[in-house]
Amino acid sequence: MAPNPKQAPKAPRPRRSMPQLPGRGDSFWLNLATAIVVLVLLAGAYSYFTGAGGTAAPTVVPVSQVASDINAGKISSIVVDGDTLNLTYTDKSEKTSKKEPDSSLSQTLANYSVDKAALDKVTLTIKQQSAWQFWLEALAPFLAPLLLIAFFVWYLSRQVKGAGMQAFSFGQSKPRLTDPNDAASRVTFKDVAGAKEAKEELLEIVDFLKNPKKFLDIGARIPKGILLMGAPGTGKTLLARAVAGEAGVPFFSISGSEFVEMFVGVGASRVRDLFLTAKKAAPAIIFVDEIDAVGRVRGTGVGGGNDEREQTLNQILVEMDGFEPNEKVIVMAATNRPDVLDPALLRPGRFDRRVVIDLPDRGDRLDILTIHARKKPFAEDVNLSVVAERTPGFSGADLFSLMNEAAILAARENRKTIGQFDLIRSIEKVMLGPERKSHVLNKKEKEITAYHEAGHALVASLLPYADPVHKISIISRGRAAGYTLKLPFEDRRMQSKKEFLDDIAMSLGGYVAEKMVFDDVTTGASNDLMVLTNLARSMVTSYGMSDKLGTMTFAEPSEKAAAEIDAEVKKIIGEAYAKAEDIITTHRKALNAIAAQLVDKETIEREEFEKLLIVNGITPKKKEEIVIEPKVVNF
Ligand code: ADP
Ligand code: ZN
Ligand code: MG
């Protein structure tokens, strides 16, 4: 009743962190505080110089008073300083006053009808204002705020650059750089398990980067672009970094998805800068991760970001076409969707070297587990080959998170070492998502789910080409109400028609059991039906496994062919249905027993399940009886 394991929500894939520019954190607040203190000081200084504060000011008197004081002969001298009048009285006291601006002192005083005779007794001095003082006074009210703003902008931009943001440096490329001399983040081929062919291919690139002269002297052409292709989590990013690590060259990495959310034109200029920087550091590697984000087939016109994507892609192509082989810069890119890539990327002289990274096989999985086990304390019972055996279809990243989950489980239970039990529990967690014990089925739902899973398990046990059952459970997991896990011994790349037919019958087992026992069906079988219908359709249209339609494949069938395909698919499913129905009818007692046990215990492991089969007169499959190497399927 569960979706295919590979569709189930996965634990977040671990990402290796790249060296980053220093983060904001504490230094941001420290800098802000400094800025505020400086501002306060500046403001204080400003108000001091503009004369608001400071020395005790002499008494200010109005000009009318000055006029009458002159007439009364009380003033001995006046110093004119701009518009300010510094008055010295005969009694030696000092006062100030202001004349009207833009008019001379004599004019002003005449207006106040000062006696010519009285004025003659006063010593008049006109102080020449210095030029800079004049300008400062005139401009200070405008200049001071401007200066403050300029200061702030400067400060902020410094701040922003430090934090690695782009607000003030739009065009600059911000690739993450891995320094070859940084031992802590250095990755080599030793850190990558499996992927033997890929490593062999890449060894040539390593050789070139280490000793470019040897190749250039003999006139060898080294590929400019290498495209790493493989499922998510197979270690493409890891492998690219390992190439740089092996060769001891700088590694500039940037992700295609980062370009997508940029402003138009920024992506292209980033690409330009990136290539420029890398050329300066040559020999070097440029790594464009998730290149499908920018390198999708052009002109499909979906979404507004399309324009930007095209410009970025074009710039990558221009740069790759533009550089000479002796530039010693190698561009690597990774994708898990080679099918959607723009053919322009794959043309000679661009990403013409392609390296496929497969999902690890059993031996590789053991090696990967061993690598990730290096720094972890294990209990004595741990047997990593058993874990490798039970994890077909797992990527390197899945195995990494399996190890991590196991460590978390052990830590949660306050143990100092990780046990085999932790590892086994983690397999299911990574494959199916965490158990949802809170999702409680009511009695009826529990019974239906139990019969459904028992149906799958029973049919699987009686069909010669289906894999033996490893575990059945009605505990909800991820989106699934229950699941049946089949035991893998080996992985396989090819499947036969007979296996497919048994698979379809097994997928129908749940539905058939529900129908026969309850005379009704639930929505729980919908995923099974979808999967098996797709499988039957592929058999007819892609694998040439239909007797009637033969060895043709049908990408875009005509109307007539479509009708024939539908008829064939229906026939395949119909025959499988009959097979499942037959098995469940014949072994109804066994079905009841399995379902009852499931309702009671919720989970049945392989051994227990096989005992149930034997009690009911069914011989369980043995390893050596399995006709073709098995795989994991679950429902
Ligand atoms: P991809 O780029 O193909 O999606 P990554 O290179 O990001 O995958 O792999 C994620 C993580 O999974 C790696 O950092 C590493 O810990 C682990 N991993 C994947 N493949 C391998 C491998 N072949 N050997 C060792 N670890 C691996
Ligand atoms: Zn099912
Ligand atoms: Mg990656």
Quick description:
The chain has 635 residues and is α/β, with parallel strands linked by helices.
**Could you give the count of β-strands?**
14
Read across the widest sheet, the strand sequence of neighbours is 6-8-9-10-7-11
The fold-level CATH name of the largest domain is Methane Monooxygenase Hydroxylase, Chain G, domain 1
Specify the CATH class of the largest domain.
Mainly Alpha
Oligomeric description of these chains: single chain
Annotated CATH homologous superfamily of the largest domain = Peptidase M41
The span between the termini is 4 Å
Mean pLDDT: 79
Q: Which stretches are low in confidence, meaning pLDDT under 50 for 5 or more residues running? A: 1-25, 162-173, 301-305, 624-635
What shape does the CA trace take?
A: elongated
Structural class: alpha/beta
How would you sum up the major sheet?
A: 6 strands, mixed
Write up this protein.
The protein is 49% helix and 11% strand. It contains 22 helices and 14 strands. It has 635 residues and is α/β, with parallel strands linked by helices. The chain has four domains: 59-128, Signal recognition particle alu RNA binding heterodimer, srp9/1, CATH 3.30.720; 176-357, P-loop containing nucleotide triphosphate hydrolases (Rossmann fold, 3-Layer(aba) Sandwich); 371-432, Orthogonal Bundle (Helicase, Ruva Protein, domain 3); 443-625, Methane Monooxygenase Hydroxylase, Chain G, domain 1 (Up-down Bundle). A hairpin with a 2-residue loop joins strand 2 (75-81) and strand 3. The protein has helices at 25-49, 63-71, 105-111, 116-120, 131-162, 196-210, 212-217, 236-247, 256-260, 266-280, 292-295, 306-322, 362-373, 384-389, 396-412, 420-432, 443-462, 497-518, 526-541, 559-586, 588-601, 606-615, and strands at residues 59-60, 75-81, 84-89, 94-98, 123-127, 176-178, 225-230, 251-255, 284-289, 329-335, 353-357, 469-473, 483-486, 603-605. The protein starts with 24 loop residues before the first helix and ends in a 20-residue tail after the last helix. The strands form three sheets. A six-stranded mixed beta sheet has the order 6-8-9-10-7-11, sandwiched between helices. It has a five-stranded mixed beta sheet with strand order 1-4-3-2-5, with helices on one face. A three-stranded antiparallel beta sheet has the order 13-12-14. Helix 15 crosses helix 16, helix 18 runs antiparallel to helix 19 (526-541) and helix 18 crosses helix 20. Residues 1-25, 162-173, 301-305 and 624-635 have low confidence and may be disordered. Bound molecules: adenosine-5'-diphosphate, zinc ion and magnesium ion. Magnesium ion binds at residues 236-237, 289, 334.
